[in-house]
Amino acid sequence: MKRFRRHGQESHRDRIKQELYGFNKTVEHGFPHQPSALVFSPSLQLLAIGTRSGAIKLYGAPGVEFMGLHDENAAVTQVHFLPQQVDLVTLLDDNSLHMWTLRAHHGVSELLETGRFTLTGPPGAPPSVTRVTAVLTHSSGDMLFLGTEGGHVFVVEVPGFRELEERNISLENVTNSLPEDYGGRRILEHVESLQENPVNPLQVLIGYGRGIMVIWDLERHSAVKHIPATQQLESVWWTEDGGHVLSSHSDGSYCRWMVAGEGTQSEPEKSEVPYGHFPCKAISKIIQLPTEQGPPFLFLSGGMPRASYGDRHCISVIHSKTHVALDFTSRIIDFFVIRDGPDHTGDPSALVVLVEEELVVIDLQTEGWPVIQTPYLVPLHCSAITCSHHVSAIPLKMWERVLSAGALQNTHYSKKPWPITGGQNLSPDAPQRDLLLTGHEDGTVRFWDASGVCLYPMYKLSTAGVFLTDAEPNDNMNQCTEGEWPPFRKVGCFDPYSDDPRLGVQKIHLCKYSGYLTVAGTAGQILVLELNDEAAEQTVEATVADLLQGQESFRWKGHTRLEVREEPVTFPPGFQPFALVQCQPPAVVTALTLHSEWKLVTFGTSHGFGLYDYQQKSNVLVRCTLNPSDQLAMEGPLSRVKSIKKSLRQSFRRIRRSRVSLRKHHVNSAAKVQEANARLEAELAEMELAPVQRKIEARSSDDSFTGLVRTLYFADTFLSDSSHHTPSLWAGTNGGSVFAYQLRLPPVERRSEDPVSAHPAKEIQLMHRAPVVGIVVLDGHGSPLPEPLEVAHDLARSADMQGCHQLLVISEEQFKVFTLPKVSAKMKLKLTAIDGSRVRRVGVAWFGSSRSEDYGESGLTVLTNQGDLHVVSLPGVKLQVQYPCIRREDVSGIASCVFTKHGQGFYLISPSEFERFSLSARCVVEPRSLVEVPSQTPGTTLPRAQPDGPSVAHRNSTRDTDDVAVLQEIQKSLEGYQPTFLENNVKSALAGGKVLTNGD
Amino acid sequence: MNKNHRVPSNRTLGAVEVKSKFGAEFRRFSLDRSKPGRFDEFYRLLQHMHRIPNVDLLVGYADVHGDLLPINNDDNYRKAISVADPVLRLFLQRKEEADYSAFGLDTLTRPKKTVLAAMLLRPDANRKKPLVIISLPRDFRPVSSIIDVDILPETHRRVRLYKHGQEKPLGFYIRDGSSVRVTPQGLEKVPGIFISRMVPGGLAESTGLLAVNDEVLEVNGIEVQGKSLDQVTDMMIANSHNLIVTVKPANQRNNIVRSGGAASGSSGHSSDSGTSFYGYSSPGIALATTPADIIQNFHPEELESDEDDEDLVMEVDGEAMPIPRTSSASCTIPFIPRYMPHLDLRTTNGALASHNRSGSLRTLSTADSGLEGRSLEEEGTVITL
């Protein structure tokens, strides 16, 4: 009986768990790591980016995002949309082609891989014959032309990837058609470029690496014309009237050739080296687009003078008399131009450039060509991220103040709306306003709108102005001097170089109600800032906190304190610093908490912790936690780095030595080879015998960095007796110690005069000595105490002060609940003893039930060193759920994790990307968007096809009908065996599956 | 020294001849063999005979083999009387002259339940050594034990290392390796965790129950299979105050042989492939001498209530006491100025300098209360334990 009942309870609990928890990785914010390919579909208005890790990401209007990952761990080298369709083809560097499609499912589009294909050459052919170097998606939408390293062009039918062998253009076909006098006819090299004639889909231009270009007639299967460029070919552009071909070359020149007329044209109509005289680097891509009135736009990538500016990453834009060399922050991956008009055939409106570290969009229709701020793909890492802090449910007033402060910083951006508008964002509006704050190496704090799918930059705070640093703020390189050649203009914000590593932001705490912010950094600096809507000029008062407390035997060998500007500094509207604490020794701040109601800030380093009253601008308490025998903590970061270096050097030496010894023995005679082999075996055996080993030893008080303060916490609770609750400060250290101080605050009306005092009340030494990573006080109902001012703003139920409070101490190994005020152990969960994982990150969250609106539970969100996420119930400290999330080897990903108050979280999957995840079944932020197939009726799709990508065409109607007829004819000639070939419905049906046969 | 055996005819006599030596002095007396009395009576008698009424003594006797054994309770007193042949030779020693550093440090705090009486009176091997100090059984403390012998396969060994508060390091290293296991599909090579090194003088080495190349199967009852080296390391460290390691010894020759044979070798044969070459040469020490009749079992609930896992709560002056304490008398400080939450948002929300000097009378009273509170503080104990 009893057993049955208990079983029933368990299943009931299981059901509640299902309603509360659910794990999803929902969206990736930021800029993809190592992008390698870019393409744009004018008809879908979607942008696609491929990466070196095999990911493919699609972006449209803000909020419209899709992501796919190739199973192969290979870089995406090219991406092409099929014209007028929702399909795209990717080429990986393992030479495989993949077909992806956006399929609508329950009203939401999904990106799915629908097929894959690798070219197979004739038996015995070298791999270069089928190594794809150029891809052309034909405007008919069902043919791919694949140019290869061997110089052949293969034709493949899509979406099914069926080789159309009879249509292939082999190297022999081309060489035979070449005139006898062409010197380089024997070696044409690889196919560098394939271009379709914008006005005649039956003509395709094949550009070979050696320079020669051949216009090939698909119908007659013969060369129409040869263009004998003599320089190594980099790219080809067919102007949209079909009259000219532009070619760019490796010597930094570009040529314009007339297409009209048959046979060989020996000289280009125009040949120019834009940055000439001295040797130049290659022009890797060239685009020319006409305007309604006036001269065309010419876009050139590269071509800089090799000696003087060979290291610049430039795109030159030439329009009439305007010539600008846009100087980017990192290597250019690719670029495209967006055009106006309903058919996207009008004037160029925006230049979109993908560089290695960011996406830059330039407004070409506004004077001065300003940059348009990107709503997604923002470079989170423009300076390396050093920490992050999340604040949920920001009050509207505060939100607007931050927004308006941010708007003042963005005046240099173009006012034009975001030009990429594909798809519909169907995600519901975010239920609340969430802020993600990232601290950076250069001393900035960036505020991001993290409410929805797009991580949108709101405001940037710089703390460097408070200090004297080497770099003066005025030496800006953006000013371009008159008459400079090339006419550089710096664009982009990626700037990984920090003036002073001490400025790095390590800890952030924001009070969303009062607008007080505290920011702490690498050199022991703690700034307290206040949100102010007006610019203000003020001096920041510095207070030194001597954390050593007279322990003179120690010598700090690390960096020095930052020097503070003594004259008043003008701070723009936004968060303005008004108080500064500098720790001595100036070690990195490891814990930081602000209590805006009590106007106190507490901070900790590896030496101790302090309490600062920012109303009176004075230290209340300084406590040294240092263990006298801990020398390592004293030496500072520099000597520690040295020791790591030393050990690295040793291990390298060991490797080298073994290599050297091997090489020495690999000399001529067979006996010696044998000896070497024996030796190798012995060495291998030795390596096996001396593997990685781990010492099993209990932690002792003598361990290093036991005094490092890991967590600080303010609580209004029953510290000394069960009838009076008082303000208290709690600190937890790396050595498993917890220090509790009772705080005495003067009444409100005397707050600015009477001193705040702190008195030691309790010290707990956890017997297992694991680092204390979190301290939480639970009220009489077992819920965590509310944040300061939360109750005053009616946003939280006030804490229950009737029942007994409990103290929850979270160490890396255990969750332990103690009673208060009498600190006796009540419950514990020994995580490490059970499964060997250790707590790396912990947060308090509220989980709402997905089924009933009014039910919810508090819980701890925990990330372990194994990369697993756990939810631990409160106050019972029981494991609820466990999900693997991050690879355990990804130490920086685990260290970067930050939890929200509603069961979501963020962690860095690369230096520039946050992965957003959700542990809550109710609170999930994920992209939901729909992309519809461009509305075209089946019969007319093919001939009317507006080719996508570079080969945007402009046609008049009479020509259109001609094209239809011609095209249909060649199609028919192609497919006598396949009558349904042209029918779109078959194609779309086939697109659904991976297998494509003959269409029956 | 005194190895002259006598004919056992004297045994029939009712009296036991006692020859007691204290320092250089001898006393002779006799006791009734059938009514030896209790140990404390005997102890007082000795003090009386030697006229050293206030001296604490360690009492030892030479048994038939010439071994020096202690007499410190009724049981071994009776045993000593019964084996006296016929002379009972006693050796008395001042307790304070004994070298106490050899004994456990926390003799008074340690509860009695951990005492294993039967293990302690092993004959000392070296007879030539000067007088060995033998302490009371409860002064001994186990440092290690083999447990769960009845439920484990014979090829496995579950070792409990008692760290307690002692200074001796646990003292061993573990590494990755591979072992061969019998599975329904046949032999299979699987990754495993092995002991790679012993720290000389460490707890692990001194017990002799663990050896290099032993495969670690469980830590405190939790299987390590599928766990990384770092995870197992963390598990062991997390359990270091009371570490229970189940190993498959590399040296399988010292296994405990059970007559019952109830347990079946369920996990089959496994051996560290990397060590077969010299695995048997590793020193397997004290196993042979371990009494096979002591079976300790490991109960998971014991872990939960282990008294070693007590955290310390310290007062301001640094005096430490373990928690929880039994005394429930919590003294409350009668007057502690109570903090009133500042709910008035107008004052907390920015204009800092504006509110002040509202009433000097109140200032006085708060200053007073602050003073009182502080004087209490200085006395130290605000803690209520």
From TrEMBL, chain A:
Compartmental location: Cytoplasm
Domain named Lethal giant larvae homologue: residues: 272-370
Disordered, as annotated region: 933-961
Cellular component aspect of the GO annotation: cortical actin cytoskeleton; plasma membrane
PROSITE patterns referenced in this protein's UniProt entry, alphabetically: WD_REPEATS_2
WD repeat intervals: 431-449
GO MF: GTPase activator activity; myosin II binding
InterPro entries: Lethal2_giant, LLGL2, WD40/YVTN_repeat-like_dom_sf, WD40_repeat_dom_sf, WD40_rpt
This protein's UniProt keywords: Cell cycle, Cytoplasm, Exocytosis, Phosphoprotein, Repeat, WD repeat
GO biological process annotation, one example: regulation of Notch signaling pathway
Listed SUPFAM superfamilies: WD40 repeat-like (SSF50978)
Pfam families listed in its UniProt record: LLGL, WD40
Gene3D superfamilies, per the entry: YVTN repeat-like/Quinoprotein amine dehydrogenase
Chief site of localization: cytoplasm
Top-rank taxon: Eukaryota
Family as reported in the entry's similarity comment: Belongs to the WD repeat L(2)GL family.
Name this polypeptide is given: LLGL scribble cell polarity complex component 2
Organism: Oncorhynchus kisutch (Coho salmon)
From TrEMBL, chain B:
Pfam families given in the database record: PB1, PDZ
Every PB1 domain range: 15-95
Boundaries of every PDZ domain copy: 158-251
Top-rank taxon, per record: Eukaryota
PROSITE patterns membership: PB1, PDZ
InterPro entries, per database record: PAR6_homolog (IPR051741), PB1-like (IPR053793), PB1_dom (IPR000270), PB1_Par6 (IPR034868), PDZ (IPR001478), PDZ_sf (IPR036034)
Gene Ontology terms: biological process: cell division; centrosome cycle; establishment or maintenance of cell polarity; regulation of cellular localization
Localisation: Cell junction, Tight junction; Cell membrane; Cytoplasm
Record keywords, A-Z: Cell cycle, Cell division, Cell junction, Cell membrane, Cytoplasm, Membrane, Tight junction
Main subcellular location of this protein, as a coarse class: other
Transmembrane parts of this sequence: none
Listed SUPFAM superfamilies: CAD & PB1 domains, PDZ domain-like
Bias (Low complexity): 259-275
Region of interest: Disordered: 256-275, 364-385
Gene Ontology cellular component terms for the protein in this record: apical plasma membrane; bicellular tight junction; cell cortex; nucleus
Cytoplasm among keywords: yes
Family that this chain belongs to: Belongs to the PAR6 family.
Protein name: Par-6 partitioning defective 6 homolog beta (C. elegans)
Species name: Oncorhynchus kisutch (Coho salmon)
